[in-house]
Amino acid sequence: MVKSYLRYEPAASFGVIVSGESNITYDSSGNFVVAPALEKVGIWNVRQGECKKTLVPEVAKFGPSLAVTSLAASHSSQIACGYADGSVRIWNLEDGTCETTLNGHKRAATVLRYNKIDSMLASGSKDNDIILWDVVGEAGLFRLRGHRDQVTDLVFVDSGKKLVSSSKDKFLRVWDLETQYCMQIVGGHHSEIWSIDVDPAERYLVSGSADQELRCYLINLQSDDGTRLPEVAGTETGNGELVQHNKWELLKHFGDVVRQNNHRVATVRFNKSGNLLACQVAGKIVDVFSVLDDAEAKRKAKRRLRRKKEKKSSNKADGVTENGYTELVQDESSTSTVIVADVFKHLCGLRAKHNICSVSFRPVNAKNVLASLALSLNNSTLEFYSVMKDSAEKATAIELPGNHGVVRSVTLSYDDGLLMSTCDNAVKIWNPSSGYCIRTVDSKHGLCSMFAPRNKYAVVGTKDGTLEIIDIGSATRIEEVKAHGSSVKTIMPLPNEDGFVTGSSDRDVKFWKYETVQKLGLESKHLTVSNTETLKMDDDVVCVAISPDAKYIAIALLNSIVKVHHMDSLNLFITLYGHKLTVLCMDVSSDGAFMVTGSADKNIKIWGLDFGDCHKSIFAHSDSVLAVKFVRNTHYVFSVGADRLIKYWDADKFELLLTLEGHHDRVSSLAVSNRGDYIVTGSYDRSIRRWDRTTEAFFIEEEKEKRLDEMFEGDLEDPSENRFGIKEEIPEEGAVALAGKKTTETLSKTDLLVDALDIAEVEMKRIIEHKEAKAAGRAGEFQPNIIMGGRSPSDYVLHSISSVHTNDLEQTLLALPFSDALKLMSYLKDWTDNPDMIETVSRIAMILIQTHHSQLITTQAARPLLSVLKEVLSLRVKECKDTIGFNLAAMDHLKQLMGSKSDAPFRDAQAKLAEVRLRLLKNTRIETREHRPKKKPKKSNDRL
Asked: Cross-referenced SUPFAM superfamilies, in alphabetical order (predicted)?
């Protein structure tokens, strides 16, 4: 009889507010911050400091959960999320649903950008490609190739007609999206370009790298008639050279903005009004620059030149300049030009306590504030700052619900009602069922922890060798005991619950017992500990395990040896040899028969404690094994490792039962509930995950087949890792390719479409034969194919192709053989009778004709079909265009009628009148300053 086991599945993930792999962004209203949290996306209310909604993608059949790597907010309620597998998902913030999934990149999506009208989305990836997506049609338009390294940032210019991209290859590329051509390549940076941005008025483009300066470019926009659009008049470079614009060059170097620190630039962003520029570096600093408008920049340039003229005039009496050479003072009007220093001025800088991962401007500003900034820090914290005229003040922060560092240990209470986690600077108490953070206690660098009996107190071993006793009820650290001379690596409770054992790097194993003391001036007593016995070892102690019957204590040393001592006399019982590297973790089964050890040599070994023999050595993980735990009253073992995996083993049969994937970094700690109904794991990705045991049974053979299928599909999806796959050549300069990519889903859809075409062809032959037999008077009642569900052959094929996602349609049709493509084209004429299918039919026809063009023009049987399609499709497309044009004209007419019935035109006129008055007032002030008589310099009395 084949034995079945119960499956463990992910149930909850908590402890992460924001992860550093992606950027943060505000929504269109400015009331919520969209923050990535590993594979989730949290929608945080800034004022309340609460997570109102969580966007979680559906769990894939195979493979781990995928981290969010980029975010972009539209001007509506949509959020675009890029993931580590290259997919892009469009979410609706109102109901929290995923509207569509776009597959095209082969590696992680690094940047996403919407155009101004949110009709198009551009995505850049680590695969060096840029893909343009039609958001409305939910399909990829085309792929742009040319960069030789990862694409780091993108920005639309010229009303979405052009796209500027930056890359780690040190170049900027300007793409014409109408002709799908790279029209300009801009160099100048000496290191990788990490971020670019354009002000809302599209005057300047700023790029940042590891260079000391931010490079600023003028944007040379052309109108429809070929004339250049107005911009800053009289601009010059930082060297004083006049800018000569070429109509074929969109970007022209304007000058360099000097930064305030030497760290590389991580993000540069303009605010919505364009008067501020934030430069975030790969550190703790954000520099904020003010961006002056045209009039202010001109006034500043005139003041600069006036001061320069006065300075030269002061030296004119001596006839020499500062350099010692005579020089004529030029006319002020001839050199009244604007340089980059006249436009960008350093306003203030803000410093966070931890490294900053990303920055985002709030689209709506509060009163008496120039701008509001949101920062994500590498300690899983969100901070919000208000930018004033000359300073930046911290407004609020969201930090309590998350782990501020790597999770070093997780421990369940005796009744499984509480969960404790330790990290670099805090101890947190959680509700393991809901994932709610109950208590947060400031602590030192905790490495291990345990609950005291009755769950009122907790004991934490720290890196500096102290034991911290924490009162859970009051969330305070009531006592700190100096226990060891070095870090406390392990802490293990005694089976009789009257004490515990600690092991340290100072080569001591110490036994402790609980005591209650009363401090002076206090009525209540509190828990303390005292050392009862010390066992000296030959090397650093890494971990300790005690048998449940309190008969043996096993001590793992740094020299990869495990020593087993008697608990009563502390005499050596046996020494276990076998691991090649240090044993990092171990545990003893509930019956005391088995002990399992995990090592840095990637193996787990199962030992018998009766004679100390090694029952089995298993190559368990592809990296170090960091924790092992037996399920209580069983011989089932969980192991976690630095390879991010959790594995479930049968210690009797020495077989792998399950592999659980979900963490995004090494799994450092593990806790199993008393009943074994769930486990909790902590990781270096700062998350804590709970895995629940379900009622679904599984068999070992089925899991082996699934793992083999996973390996096969992994090779299919990633041809670069497949040594038998065709290696892709380096793309041409500025090449254009298809947007989609081949996946197992597109291949399965192609197979289903081929089957549908075959079934429809057989059904058509049966219908024709039945008609001939009926005409001959020897036919009975026709029995349709039950598989087609009562549909005609044409409708059955249409139903099959309609099930293909819009984004996958191109790749699905590309995999069709030529014979099946001809069959599919024969049904297109029938589908054109449905006005709703005109767009789909036209797209199918274009894809098939472009793919099989050479074969179609040489196949005589295809010529009548192409002639019919040419006439029918042209007529139907024209009718569709006329209908859309009529509807657009009607909507414009309704808009004019609604505008005539409201006071909107008057409001617009009032706003324009206010702008005109303000402009006249500024011009009057400028003229007054220019005509004001200048003060004559005082003549100094020459001394004799």
From this structure: Quinoprotein alcohol dehydrogenase-like, WD40 repeat-like
Neighbours of 357 (CB within 10 A): 24
Which position has the higher pLDDT, 889 or 837? 889
Residue with the two structure tokens 């040896």: 561
Distance CA 505, CA 489 (A): 7
State the Cα angle at 562 between 561 and 564, rounded to 5°: 145
The answer to whether 402 touches 687, Cβ cutoff 8 Å, is no
| DSSP one-letter string for 754-783 | HHHHHHHHHHHHHHHHHHHHHHTT------
Between strands 381-387 and 130-134, the pairing is: unpaired
pLDDT top residue among 517 and 560 = 560
CA 462/CA 456 separation, integer angstroms: 20
Residues 678, 692 contacting (CB under 8 angstroms): yes
| SS3 category, 822 | helix
Question: What are φ and ψ of residue 633, in 5° steps?
Answer: 65, 20
Task: Count CB-CB contacts under 10 A for residue 550.
Answer: 13
pLDDT digits (tens, 9 = 90+) for 544-602: 999 999 999 999 999 999 999 999 999 999 999 999 999 999 999 999 999 999 999 99
d(CA 375, CA 660): 33
Q: Map residue 692 onto helix, strand or coil.
A: strand
Q: Is pLDDT at 747 greater than 90 in this prediction?
A: no
Identify the DSSP state of 453.
G
CATH 2.40.240.20 fits 404-536, yes or no: no
Q: Does 404-536 match 9-145 at the fold level?
A: yes
Give, in order, the Cα–Cα distances in Å from 234 to each of 130, 294, 339, 890.
35, 10, 9, 45
Instruction: Confirm if 183 and 250 have CB atoms less than 8 A apart.
Output: yes
CA–centroid distance for 372 within its chain: 23
* CA distance linking residue 216 with residue 292, whole number of Å: 14
Q: What is the pLDDT of residues 630-659, one digit of tens each?
A: 999 999 999 999 999 999 999 999 999 999
- Residue 124 contacts residue 104 (beta carbons within 8 Å): no
Confirm if 406 and 666 have CB atoms less than 8 A apart: no
Q: Which of 110, 158, 157, 100 lies closest to 130 in space, CA to CA?
A: 110
Provide the token pair at 507.
């080569």
- Residues 507/536, Cβ–Cβ less than 8 Å: yes
Q: Domain residue spans in the chain?
A: 9-145, 404-536, 539-706, 744-880
Helices (H) and strands (E) in the chain — how many of each?
12, 57
- CATH number for the region 9-145 comes to 2.130.10.10
Tell me the C-alpha distance between 313 and 462, whole Å: 70
The pLDDT of residue 497 is 87
Q: What is the pLDDT of residue 904?
A: 57
Which numeric CATH code is attached to 539-706? 2.130.10.10
The pTM assigned to this predicted structure is 0.83
SS3 467: strand
Strand ranges for 423-561 from DSSP E: 426-430, 437-442, 446-451, 457-462, 466-471, 476-482, 488-493, 499-504, 508-517, 526-536, 541-546, 552-557
pLDDT tens per residue, range 909-920: 667 777 777 777
